[in-house]
Amino acid sequence: MATMKEAAAEFLAQKRIAVAGVSRTDGGHGGNVVYQRLRERGYEVFAVNPNAEEVEGDRSYPDLASIPGGVEAVVLATTPEVTEQMMSRCAEAGVRFVWIHRGPGGGSYSERAVEIGRDAGLSVIPSGCPLMYGETSDGAHRAMRWVFDLVGRLPKEV
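Below the sequence we write its predicted structure tokens.
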């Protein structure tokens, strides 16, 4: 198993990343914040929302299979029930890296989704946020990572 820091670095080394669950109306939604930051940092990022043609001024895709050329990694910022479905879709689409977004609340986490992903051989990060690590991070997210680490909210290994 990789440490959380190693898994985060490997995830963020991918350059084509989809964010599933990006909202049509931003309102500070975690998926939108992740989408915006990845785009700002030069990632080729794709919004996935079956109910929107456009998100954050960019084309939105109804599913992973619709993204031309596919993606290497996916951030799941969906409801836990949808996270389970999306994890199966990630495996079908050949995605190797999946991050289940989870901030202070329950977020997108689903134990069943983690099982589905790991059973399919995917590298699954089950908690936290990509913005807590590497070049995508900022002071607020690093502080949140410190607190999550302190209270055992982030796994030591994934």
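The first strand starts at residue 16 and ends at 20.
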